[in-house]
């Protein structure tokens, strides 16, 4: 007997994630969200045809990937309405030789415009910013949307920690499953990897690896993004960045209270005020449910404050470039 389909049967009550920017990071994240069967995904881009084509491609892969989520590709923000999470990946990636901060001028306008438009249609959403320079763009997106601070997050710490984790596992020749690493601070050369809090099955790596080697791994982590940009020559990393964003999306949608380092708004924690920067947080359905204050050494605190100082300077520069009403 034929099975009739009515339009009401096609209406989904699934959670909805909008990804603004259907480029490398955005489209990879869309695929990962579908394959984890987490949410319907709306992919939005300014390039007509690109998000629609990608969404169709993803819909055609569903039968093989065996999940039941929908993908919509669009250039129209009305299609994003009612999203639970909005992820901003719109903007340019850097080219070899560029710093992330060199993207500030181009990406500031894009982030303010896209975040404002998306949140206008999804005022209850949690906003995750991915576009670089990350800490500054997260701050601009918050200022532009006026969302409560706990609902605005920047993705960087999960990625930087994942890289540190990978380098530690490679160095020791052990399973990455046993390695945990944590990186705080800004998403740039001044990021603050914390070897004391990075472990192999609970054993601090400072007990397992000598200081010089740790310093080399820390330095490789700090330059992890640039290493890939130099290798690829066109664009920047996207598999690990998408996977890192996926972890945050999952923690929020499933209210997991995962302890993850994200760029969150500080109001006195670590001696810092009114700034988005990478710190350990508990992520749940409300966004940043709690900021954890680790005991840091004077050197670690000084490194965090130095990173914050640079972010502040760049925010000032960005604010002179874009109008935020
Ligand atoms: N926070 C992090 O750890 C990471 C950040 N990034 C950053 O994420 C951003 C995206 O990277 P990719 O996906 O590799 O770049 P991409 O160039 O592949 O994709 C960017 C997309 O944004 C779209 N776009 C630009 N302006 C737009 C607008 N006004 N409205 C809608 N769409 C717009 C473009 O058409 C393009 O499809 C870059 O700024 C990159 O530096 C990338 C990796 C890691
Ligand atoms: O390096 C870049 O420009 C992209 C990025 O933020 C990363 O991969 O960490």
Describe this protein's structure:
The structure is a single chain. Helix 2 (24-35) runs parallel beside helix 3, helix 2 (24-35) packs across helix 9 (239-253) and helix 6 crosses helix 7 (211-222). This protein is α/β, with parallel strands linked by helices and 325 residues long. The chain contains 10 helices and 14 strands. The protein folds into 2 domains: 16-154, Rossmann fold (3-Layer(aba) Sandwich), CATH 3.40.50.720; 157-321, Lactate dehydrogenase/glycoside hydrolase, family 4, C-terminal (L-2-Hydroxyisocaproate Dehydrogenase, Chain A, domain 2, Alpha-Beta Complex). The chain has a 6-stranded parallel sheet, with helices on both faces. Strands 7-10-11 form a 3-stranded antiparallel sheet, covered by helices on one side. Residues 93-94, 100, 132, 159, 187, 224-226, 228-229, 236-237, 241 line the site of oxaloacetate ion. 1,4-dihydronicotinamide adenine dinucleotide is lined by residues 20-26, 45-47, 89-94, 103, 107, 110, 113-114, 130-132, 134, 155-156, 159, 187, 235-238, 241.
């Amino acid at each position: 007997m034929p099975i009739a389909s009515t339009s009401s049967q096609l209406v989904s009550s699934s959670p909805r994630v909008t990804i603004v920017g259907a480029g490398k990071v955005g489209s990879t994240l869309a695929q990962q969200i579908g394959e984890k069967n987490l949410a319907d995904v709306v992919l939005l881009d300014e390039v007509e045809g690109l998000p629609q084509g990608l969404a169709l491609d993803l819909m055609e892969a569903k039968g093989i990937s065996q999940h039941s989520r929908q993908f919509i590709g669009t250039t129209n923000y009305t299609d994003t309405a009612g999203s639970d999470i909005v992820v901003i990946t719109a903007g340019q990636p850097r080219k070899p030789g560029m710093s992330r901060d060199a993207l500030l001028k181009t990406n500031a306008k894009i982030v303010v415009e896209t975040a404002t438009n998306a949140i206008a249609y999804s005022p209850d959403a949690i906003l995750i910013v991915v576009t670089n320079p990350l800490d500054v763009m997260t701050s601009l997106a918050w200022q532009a949307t006026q969302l409560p601070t706990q609902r605005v997050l920047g993705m960087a710490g999960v990625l930087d920690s994942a890289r540190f984790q990978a380098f530690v596992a490679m160095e020791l020749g052990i399973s990455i499953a046993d390695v945990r690493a944590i990186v705080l601070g800004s998403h740039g050369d001044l990021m603050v990897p914390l070897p004391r809090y990075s472990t192999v099955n609970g054993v601090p790596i400072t007990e397992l690896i000598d200081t010089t080697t740790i310093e080399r791994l820390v330095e490789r982590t700090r330059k992890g993004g640039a290493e890939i940009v130099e290798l690829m020559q066109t664009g920047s990393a996207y598999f690990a960045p998408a996977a890192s964003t996926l972890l945050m999306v999952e923690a929020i949608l499933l209210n997991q209270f995962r302890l993850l380092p994200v760029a969150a708004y500080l109001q006195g924690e670590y001696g810092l005020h009114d700034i988005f920067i990478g710190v350990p947080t508990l992520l749940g359905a409300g966004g940043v449910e709690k900021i954890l204050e680790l005991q840091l050494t004077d050197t670690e605190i000084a490194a965090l404050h130095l990173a914050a100082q640079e972010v502040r300077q760049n925010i000032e520069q960005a604010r002179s470039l874009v109008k935020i009403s």
